[in-house]
């Protein structure tokens, strides 16, 4: 395939570029480098099957041009991270709404296959044990910027779905549940790299709220091959598919594991949500995916255990990954 990966310099995007090139595909990455890093793609530099185009998905003529070269579009570019969404609500909404519409429209016109990265955030405060794709959305007030990411991603899904229905766009909507791994930065939220970077610097580990909230972290190395299999699976078209891990952990428990695996002298400090994210922040208590749809469609079975995922992030950071770069920048 000749693939476009928007957000290709980002965490998941760069792993997707690696995977596609390693499997003989030709890849164009489009990234404005606002949160993505060129260093995430240095291993592909000079590879004739790979090209990085620096630019924004808000630039419609650029989007048209790069989509025109490709038969498959993986749309991962977005404003992400709770801190980004809360700090820059309008800019984030603009990128997540207008940017996606630009990319979908070009893909539909080009008749390219299309995948859009969505998120478990679309389920909002629904904390059911095993959220399946048809679970209800339980969102807070539309006037709380905290929910703008969930609202925008919900609309992104709908836009892609409508293009699928009306113009036959072969599209897959993937809902990622707390995907983690090497290259993810903690600068914009993202608890695992934050804890790893804090532990490696010997700083207090900042657990927000009581730390009893639970998450189920999935490995980027399980999810990336699944995304590629889904785009090759017509039965997955025009539906949303959950992708994530199996092992649930409390955030307090995560802090303990990170301290243990890094061997850090750090202690845990409990930070009230208001201090972390501002007044009125609502956190999800629990977010556990039901991945049986992905299992049925492509045999999805997450392989990586949480401790191994954390260990791979620590290894990566010890050899110059995001924590090291952020520490140097500080
Ligand atoms: N969190 C935390 N300390 C941090 C960053 C995040 O305790 O420094 C918590 C956050 O409040 C949430 C969980 O970790 O309960 C996961 O946060 P993240 O931003 O990684 O993903 P979310 O599930 O909120 O989208």
Could you provide a short overview of the structure?
The chain is built from twelve helices and 14 strands. The protein is α/β, with parallel strands linked by helices. The strands form four sheets. Strands 3-2-1-4-5-6-11 form a seven-stranded parallel sheet, with helices on both faces. Strands 12-9-14 form a three-stranded mixed sheet. A two-stranded parallel ribbon has the order 7-10.
Characterise the protein shown here.
With 330 residues, the chain is of the alpha/beta class. The chain folds into two domains: 2-179 and 219-244, Rossmann fold (3-Layer(aba) Sandwich), CATH 3.40.50.720; 180-215 and 247-287 and 304-319, UDP-galactose 4-epimerase, domain 1 (Alpha-Beta Complex), CATH 3.90.25.10. 41% of the residues lie in helices and 18% in strands. The chain contains twelve helices and 14 strands. Uridine-5'-diphosphate binds next to helix 6 and strand 8.
């Amino acid at each position: 395939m000749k693939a476009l990966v928007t957000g290709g310099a980002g965490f998941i995007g760069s792993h997707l570029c690696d995977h596609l090139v390693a499997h003989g595909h030709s890849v164009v990455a489009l990234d404005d480098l606002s949160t993505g890093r060129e260093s995430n793609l240095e291993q592909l530099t000079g590879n004739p099957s790979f090209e990085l185009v620096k630019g924004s998905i808000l630039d419609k003529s650029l989007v048209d041009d790069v989509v025109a070269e490709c038969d498959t579009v993986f749309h991962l570019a977005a404003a992400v991270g709770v801190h980004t969404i809360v700090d820059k609500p309008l800019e984030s909404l603009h990128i997540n709404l207008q940017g996606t519409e630009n990319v979908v429209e070009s893909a539909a016109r080009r008749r390219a296959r299309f995948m859009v990265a969505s998120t478990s955030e679309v389920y909002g405060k629904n904390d059911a044990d095993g959220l399946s794709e048809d679970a209800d959305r339980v969102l807070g007030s539309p006037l709380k910027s905290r929910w703008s990411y969930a609202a925008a991603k919900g609309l992104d899904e709908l836009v892609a779905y409508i293009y699928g229905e009306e113009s036959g766009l072969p599209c897959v909507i993937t809902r990622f549940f707390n995907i983690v791994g090497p290259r993810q930065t903690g600068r914009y939220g993202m608890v695992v790299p934050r804890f790893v970077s804090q532990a490696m610097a010997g700083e207090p580990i900042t657990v927000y709220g009581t730390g009893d909230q639970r998450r189920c972290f999935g490995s980027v190395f399980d999810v990336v091959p699944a995304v590629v299999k889904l785009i090759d699976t017509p039965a997955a078209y025009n539906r949303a598919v959950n992708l994530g891990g199996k092992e649930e952990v409390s955030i307090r428990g995560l802090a303990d594991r990170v301290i243990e695996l890094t061997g850090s002298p750090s202690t845990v400090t409990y930070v009230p949500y208001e201090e972390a994210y501002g007044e009125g922040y609502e956190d999800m208590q629990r977010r556990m995916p039901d991945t049986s749809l992905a299992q049925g469609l492509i045999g999805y079975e997450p392989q990586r255990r949480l401790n191994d995922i954390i260990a791979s992030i620590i290894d990566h950071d010890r050899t110059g990954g995001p924590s090291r770069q952020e520490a140097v920048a500080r």
